[in-house]
Every structure is written in structure tokens, then in C-alpha cells.
Amino acid sequence: MIDVRRGYSVPQRKPERQTALAMTTATMRPRPRNILAATTAASALIALSSCSPVPDLPPAPAEPPAATGYVSSLEPYRIQVGDVLDVRLMLNPELNEEVAVRPDGHISTTVARDELAYGRTVPELTAALTRAYSADLRNPRLSVILRSFAPTRIYVGGEVNNPGEFITVGPTLTLSQAMARAGGLKFTTSDENKIFIIRRGPNDVPEFFSTRFDAVMWGKDPAADVRLAPYDVVFVPRTTVAEVYRFFQTYLLQFVPVSWGFSYVVGSGGGSSNVIPVPTATTTTR
């Protein structure tokens, strides 16, 4: 037996070369068992390609009906931080002023020094300011006008192609719209079954909510395309396989790097020559 490493060759005699060539030709002939296995695999691939996880859906109309869309069922707008409001008094125009909603959600006017505005609708804030002005004015004719409003912010992170902050004007994004803004899921590492939402609840306490984005992605349940709240965080976790691969790459290979290679053993016996590749793996400790 002679151990020959890569880069070296061993001259063979002419009869041995002919014998090796004959053995190689015989090995390359397809066996019936291999043909059956290949045919079965090809049939399975064809069957899988003909099956789609998306069910049969009704065709989309050429023109959407007039009553469809979110415009017909919008929730009343609630004042956000950064909105600019005009406070007008019909009988006391000298008290008219423009105010902005502070980061703490309150506003300050000449009469109402600290009034909560965040989370209220315009009629609700108008009623609250009217009560506050009634302490100094008799029957104040007060109105609140939303001059400009801050855009809504949604955050998408995790295993998406373009994570980040997404700013919208008007109604907040739905789950599918947010995922589209983020460039879609990473095909190899994302887990569409475990996507969750982080939302700030009462007293700024974070809450976790599960989603069913797979039902949206495969056209199974349109109700799963929930509408997000302002400042929601949508997070797409890794799959278990991706987590194992990351652990292997980050921790295992960092301390025990593996080097793969091949060696060749040339042996002769019975008038024939066989070249057998032998995989080898070496580890280096630091």
C-alpha cells in the first residue's frame, strides 16, 4: 500500500491502466436499482410541483366594489405625539393659539396649562378643553383643528431582507403590508409560523402577540392579516435549523476549526490497480 497525497501521481503499467479503465467502465454502467430510484425521485418531484399549498381562490374582480377598502370603515383618528393643533375660540379670538403635542402626550395653552391630548379624538379633546376654559370664561365657544399630524411608525426586525423603521401617513400598516415594506422573508432562515408583535400596552408595558402570517402567505385566512398599532414591532425569528447552524458557526468552529481534505491510497492486487479516495478531517485546538 502506498499513501499518495494530492498533487502526486503514481505511474502505472500499461496492463494495469487497461484493467483500471475496464473497471471504471463497468462501474459507470447504470444498475436497474439506481434507475428505479432515480425514476421514483423524479416522479415525487413532479407530484410535489403539481401540488400547491394555496387553495383555490375566487378570481379578483376587474373593478373593486365601491364599499370595499379601509376608507369606509376607518376608526376615528386619535391624536399622536408631534401633532400640531389649532385651538380657536369664536367669541374670544385673542385666545386663539397653535400648540403641539409634547413627547409626554400633553398640550399647554394660555388657559389650560397641562391637558392630555395623546390618544384622544378631536371631539374628546374639544370637550376637555371646553371644561377647562369654563373656569375662566362663560360658555366658551371652543373648537380644535388638527393642523398637521405626525406620521405613524412601524418597526420590522429579524429574518427579513430590509429590516428597519417604516413611516406611513394615514392608517397604520397591516401585517402583510409591513412585511412587504421590509422586503419579504429570508427564504432560508425565516420562520413564518413564529412571527410575533411587540406592542406597548397600558402604562407603557410591553405585550407580545402571536400572528398567523403563514395563513396570509398561503391564502388560507384573510382575517389573519391584522392591522398594526402605531410603534408596533414585528419580529421574524430564525428557524431551528438556522439557529443550530449559527451556533455551529459562531461557537463550535471558533474553538475547534475543522479542516476537510482527501488522501488517496493506491493498492495493487490480483493484477489490477484501485485508487480509493479516503476523506480525512483534522481538528486544530488552540
Major sheet? 5 strands, mixed
For the secondary structure, the number of strands is 13
Mean pLDDT score, rounded? 76
CATH H-level superfamily title of the domain at 151-241: Outer membrane lipoprotein wza domain like
Ranges where pLDDT stays below 50 over 5 or more residues in a row are: 1-10
Would you tell me the structural class of the helices and strands? alpha+beta
Protein described:
- It is a single chain.
- The protein is about 25% helix and about 25% strand.
- It is an alpha+beta fold and about 290 residues long.
- Among the domains are: about 85-150, 2-Layer Sandwich (wza like fold); about 150-240, Outer membrane lipoprotein wza fold like (Roll), CATH 3.10.560.
- The two termini are about 35 Å apart.
Question: How would you summarize the topology of this molecule?
Answer:
Elements lengths: L1 E3 L9 H15 L3 H19 L33 E6 L7 E4 L5 E2 L7 E2 L5 H12 L8 E7 L3 E7 L5 E5 L6 H7 L14 E5 L5 E5 L2 H5 L15 E4 L3 H16 L2 E12 L2 E12 L3
Parallel strand pairs: 7-11
Antiparallel strand pairs: 1-12, 2-3, 2-6, 4-5, 7-8, 9-10, 9-11, 12-13
What is the structure about, briefly put?
By secondary structure, the protein is α+β, with helices and mostly antiparallel strands. It has helices spanning 14-28, 32-50, 122-133, 175-181, 213-217, 240-255; strands at residues 2-4, 84-89, 97-100, 106-107, 115-116, 142-148, 152-158, 164-168, 196-200, 206-210, 233-236, 258-269, 272-283.
